[in-house]
Specification:
heterodimer; B: mainly alpha; MetI-like fold; two-stranded antiparallel sheet; 2 strands; about 70% helix
């Protein structure tokens, strides 16, 4: 009997999972379909297949604010790319020290690093804001980018420490016998083997920085400096209830890079989540 | 440099000083060499950590202490800080109804959305386990919302879906229900944010999936031989062996959800409305610090937030003794 029932129950399971998956994705799909529907049809049609396709929302939204939306996307891209570079450099340096070198008070600093992962950003943001405004960094990208070059995203240090610890020590020792110092061992031996951890770091940093609203909204207030999320928010504030079409269109464009990175880097995302999750 | 196995240990491993060897003369040379190596490593260690140290003191620890100092002051950035002792804290708990209200809103949000989210995550992880065909596709579909959920774009979408003429009301309209907008009604606005949080169950789900894979198959086989049904297997094998990961996810999501900001900010139009029903703690902190420029008060709120999160985490850890099962315990 069980043999007979199995394919059927497996099929039921697939059907249930697909229905649930569609339910989960429905808001996103609806937003995509709404963005190509003519204005006014959006809310009369909860269906996903548009009867009438138009690009008007995209061209309208693109030019709705002071600058074209591409301008804000570029601002986001600059910050995001610098943040990725900063995290890769600074976090891998710190991770190498914690994973491979012995130095006084190492345990203490390692604990401090772990604790700093848990520290809410709000506990430091007020003095940071005061400090950055005193040195004239408001409305520049530096308050967002410079901390990344100082390894303040300790989560990624931890991720890389975990990864480096799995690499055999014999590699370091062989490099030492060949006369390589710590720097060369790090650059030529450890880093090339860390590519998966570096990829995970790069993808997460990209997505988190691209999505980040709090910091960018705080430091970038001049209408020439806005990033895509902040611009979207201003769009929402400035527009009446009738211009949802263009706003959806720009929302989708702003989610595009995240979706792209997600598709390209799924393997690293899932692996990164899974290996740092516990152990 | 050739090392005998006995010496290779400490040199490659921890910095513990080697036990004093009985034969001094023989030990002297390797020891000296090791100490110079140790010194070079110490230098290198601190050099590699230099950016992190600067960040730690300038961006993290320094500001953290400055926050504590500011919390005892009246400060608006225009005039120098003015010491007022514990007044900010006192005012918070005795004279600021909005503060108490924001605590209540955040507590409801965390207490409802985190368990729900984890339940979905665990349920779906269990459904996806065991070599299901198409698993990577399902996993991606369920994981995707957790990457997008924090964005302004999704918050805008949510505001529209649950708006007065949003699709949720269109749907309900087919069944004869004609209500007001879910985000514009003070009774329901918070629930739309809770749904948004639950929607992002993919991240803990992926962690659960990895955890499920660590459970040895033989345990299930043995249980089946003993005649244990599915429910029994879940209760007696899966759940206990998964408790460390449930615990980890719970701590992580608790900390994260307590700091939720963007969704409430965008959905409410930046003020925590309607009628403060989505006034998250961090949103109120932001309003106090960066809209009203009551920075001393915001700093005090930040420290209270730290204490709350610290206390919750500590309670979590203490309670974990009673329900988290680590394999190496007997």
């Amino acid at each position: 009997m069980p043999v007979l029932f199995r394919p059927a129950s497996r099929l039921t399971k697939h059907v249930l999972l697909i229905v649930f998956g569609l339910f989960m994705l429905y808001p996103l799909l609806w937003m995509v379909s709404s963005s190509i529907k003519p204005e006014g049809l959006i809310f009369r049609e909860p269906g996903l297949v548009p009867h009438d396709v138009t690009g008007a929302n995209y061209s309208g939204g693109w030019h709705a604010l002071k600058h074209s939306f591409g301008y804000y996307l570029w601002n986001s891209a600059v910050i995001t790319v610098l943040a990725v570079v900063g995290n890769l450099v600074a976090c891998s340096l710190a991770a190498y020290a914690f994973a491979r070198l012995e130095f006084p008070l190492k345990k203490l600093w390692f604990t401090v690093m772990l604790l700093s992962i848990m520290l809410p950003h709000h506990v430091t943001v007020v003095p940071q804001y005061i400090m950055f405004s005193k040195i004239g960094w408001i409305n520049t990208i530096w308050p967002i980018v410079v901390p990344k070059f100082l390894a303040t995203d300790a989560f990624f240090i931890f991720l890389m420490v975990q990864f480096i610890r799995t690499l055999p020590r014999e590699l370091d020792e062989a490099a030492a016998i060949d006369g390589a110092g710590h720097w060369r061992t790090f650059v030529q031996v450890i880093l090339p083997l860390c590519v998966p951890a570096l990829a995970t770091t790069a993808i997460f940093t990209f997505i988190w920085t691209w999505n980040d609203f709090f910091t960018q909204n705080l430091y970038l207030t001049n209408s020439d400096n806005l990033t895509a999320p902040v611009a979207l928010r201003q769009f929402l504030d400035a527009s009446s209830d009738s211009s949802w079409g263009p706003m959806f269109a720009m929302s989708i464009i702003s989610l595009g890079p995240i979706f792209g990175f997600f598709l390209a880097g799924q393997k690293y995302l899932v692996r990164g989540m899974a290996t740092t999750g516990f152990k | 440099m050739t090392l005998r196995p006995a010496e290779a240990g400490p040199a490659a491993g921890t910095a513990e000083p080697p036990a004093a060897p009985p034969a001094r003369r023989r030990a002297r040379r390797p020891r000296r060499r090791k100490s110079s190596r140790a010194r070079s490593q110490a230098w290198a260690g601190y050099l590699f950590l230099a950016p992190w140290f600067i960040g730690l003191f300038a961006i993290t620890l320094g500001p953290m202490i400055a926050t504590l100092y500011l919390s005892f002051n009246d400060y608006s950035m225009l005039t120098p800080p003015h010491w007022i002792g514990l007044d900010n804290y006192h005012r918070m708990f005795t004279a600021d109804d909005r503060f108490i209200h924001s605590l209540r809103v955040t507590t409801v949000y965390v207490a409802v959305s985190v368990p729900l989210q984890l339940a979905f995550a665990l349920g779906l992880a269990m459904a996806l386990d065991k070599g299901l065909r198409g698993l990577p596709i399902y996993r991606s579909v369920f994981y995707l919302p957790s990457l997008l959920g924090g964005s302004v774009a999704i918050a805008i979408l949510w505001r529209k879906i649950f708006g007065t003429d949003g699709i949720v009301n269109t749907f309900l309209g087919w069944f004869g229900y004609h209500g007001e907008g879910w985000v514009t009604s003070p009774d329901t606005a918070l629930w739309t944010l809770i749904i948004l949080h639950v929607w992002t169950f993919g991240a803990p789900m992926v962690i659960f999936l990895a955890g499920l894979r660590q459970i040895p198959r033989e345990l299930y086989e043995a249980a089946r031989v003993d005649g244990a049904g599915r429910w029994r297997q879940f209760r007696s094998i899966t759940l206990p062996l998964l408790t460390p990961i449930i615990f980890f996810n719970a701590v992580l999501e608790l900390i994260k959800s307590f700091q939720s900001f963007t969704q409430a900010f965008v959905v409410s139009g930046g003020n925590g409305g309607p009628v403060d029903s989505t006034l998250f703690y961090t949103l109120y902190l932001y309003i106090k610090g960066f809209k009203n420029y009551e920075m001393g008060y915001a700093a005090a709120m930040a420290w209270v937030l730290l204490l709350i999160i610290g206390a919750l985490t500590a309670v979590n850890f203490l309670m974990s003794r009673f329900w988290v099962f680590y394999g190496d315990e007997k």
